[in-house]
Hints:
Blueprint: H1 3-17, H2 36-43, H3 46-49, E1 58-62, H4 73-81, E2 84-88, H5 95-106, E3 114-117
Parallel strand pairs: 1-2, 2-3
Helix pairs in contact: 1-2
Amino acid sequence: INDDLRSSLLGLLEELTREGRRIDRVFVETTGVADPGPVVTTIILPEFSARVHLDSVVTLVDAHAFNETEEEAIFKKQLQEADLIVLNKCDLVSQPTIESLQERIESVPGVRADIVKATRGALPPETFF
Length: 129
């Protein structure tokens, strides 16, 4: 996580939790370039942990654009940190491709998340809560 993102996240959490404001949900989307570990660490800092609860880390995998370069260290960390993995754009690839991608994801050491399939990112809200 770069300092700008960390500072922005800290500022947002401070603003949202100021003076006991009630927060139902905060989603942080890192556009596929961030190691989720520092984001999680920021959210669970002592100054926020009494007011903000980290529910889950969701990793989105684009089934249509997935390629070998996605198996870099950051991508593996995203998979390993995830509580839920959404395999999206499943309508744009064949069933054997989906099965192959799922096997590849599950073969990454440390992956423990459930994998759900989606089309156009459409999933019922209860999937995330």
